[in-house]
């Protein structure tokens, strides 16, 4: 299959994507977080095609992207807390895991057989296309399962070229890490995945404590695999000293001992800006995702705000495979 790349600014781009989605085909689309591999949530062929193209385990559910809160309420049951969060953060990088509505018109593969559904209202082209389709679009990150997430059209093409017919190019992703995933649970919120909205912001907006599920709990949300986002080489985290020949992902102005021994260095943000670092994270991992690169060292990154999401992705990238 030939994969076409069209600039999002091309007047034919969105109509072409819409036609493919309506035909049950897949399209890689930019969101404000990362690039997503989009398909019609009501089409079994499209949903199954996403799992096949990515090599994604079928027990790992997908996020349903909606054009409006009313579309979200057609597939999920929103309690008062969920409504409060949706009204505060949507459109934006927050996904809610909610009870699946009894008459939700989405294919069962999208929820991986769970009684819940992950739902988000993004900004931009994905929401516009969902509005034209009149139903949600499922769109996990546009990469091979377990590998580095694509934050540019070229990165998507390296992983999925020849597997999908179209990639819409809108330049580098603005946020750079996937959405935060929250599940309301009575008088608390469960943080299922750190992401583009910080824990502190969600706590302030909801007035509820945010807890993290115990490790080893069953996967209840997309992106829950222990090993994910991985380049070819092994990653060593919180590196204070650099070993000879390591490729280094650095952060801020502090210089680790032995940096002169590094084979190459990419700094996520020389000024120590976590927003800039998040936007650059997957591009840095992709730059070092080559078979000949066996060892990658990552210097310490703060765990506050977006730093929690950055460290989550790095921990999964470094996990045993």
UniProtKB/TrEMBL annotation:
Domain YrdC-like: from-to ranges: 11-197
InterPro entries: DHBP_synth_RibB-like_a/b_dom, Sua5-like_dom, Sua5/YwlC_C, Sua5_C, T(6)A37_SUA5, TC-AMP_synthase_SUA5
EC number: 2.7.7.87
One cellular component term from this protein's GO annotations in UniProt: cytoplasm
Highest rank taxon of the organism: Bacteria
Main location: cytoplasm
Keywords: ATP-binding, Cytoplasm, Nucleotide-binding, Nucleotidyltransferase, Transferase, tRNA processing
Reactions that this protein is recorded to catalyse: L-threonine + hydrogencarbonate + ATP = L-threonylcarbamoyladenylate + diphosphate + H2O
Residues annotated to bind L-threonine: 33, 65, 120, 139, 179
Binding site for ATP: 56, 60, 116, 141, 193, 229
UniProt cross-references to NCBIfam families, sorted A to Z: L-threonylcarbamoyladenylate synthase
Family note: Belongs to the SUA5 family.
Functional summary from the UniProt entry: Required for the formation of a threonylcarbamoyl group on adenosine at position 37 (t(6)A37) in tRNAs that read codons beginning with adenine.
Protein name: Threonylcarbamoyl-AMP synthase
Organism field: Jiella flava
């Amino acid at each position: 299959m030939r994969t076409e790349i069209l600039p999002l600014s091309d007047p034919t781009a969105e109509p072409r994507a819409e036609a493919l989605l309506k035909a049950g085909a897949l399209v890689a689309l930019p969101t404000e977080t990362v690039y997503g591999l989009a398909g019609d949530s009501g089409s079994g062929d499209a949903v199954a095609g996403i799992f096949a193209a990515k090599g994604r385990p079928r027990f790992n559910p997908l996020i349903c992207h909606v054009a409006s809160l009313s579309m979200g309420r057609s597939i999920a049951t929103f309690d008062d807390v969920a409504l409060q969060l949706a009204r505060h953060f949507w459109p934006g990088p927050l996904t809610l895991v909610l009870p699946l509505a009894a008459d939700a018109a989405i294919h069962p593969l999208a929820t991986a057989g769970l009684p819940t559904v992950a739902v988000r209202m993004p900004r931009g082209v994905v929401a516009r296309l969902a509005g034209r389709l009149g139903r949600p679009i499922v769109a996990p990150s546009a990469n091979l399962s377990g590998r580095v997430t694509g934050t540019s059209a070229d990165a998507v093409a390296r992983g999925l070229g020849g597997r999908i017919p179209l990639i819409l190019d809108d330049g580098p992703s603005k946020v750079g890490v996937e959405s935060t995933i929250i599940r309301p649970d009575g008088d608390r919120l469960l943080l299922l995945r750190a992401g583009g909205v910080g824990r502190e912001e969600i706590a302030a907006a909801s007035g509820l404590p945010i807890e993290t599920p115990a490790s080893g709990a069953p996967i209840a949300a997309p992106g829950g695999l222990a090993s994910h986002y991985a380049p070819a080489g092994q990653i060593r985290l919180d590196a204070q000293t650099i070993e000879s020949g390591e490729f280094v992902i650095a952060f801020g102005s502090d210089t680790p001992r032995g940096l002169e021994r590094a084979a190459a260095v990419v700094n996520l943000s020389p000024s120590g800006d976590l927003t800039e670092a998040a936007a650059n994270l997957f591009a840095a991992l992709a730059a070092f995702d080559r078979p000949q690169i066996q060892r990658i060292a990552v210097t310490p990154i703060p765990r506050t705000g977006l730093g929690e999401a950055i460290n989550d992705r790095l921990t999964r990238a470094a996990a045993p495979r």
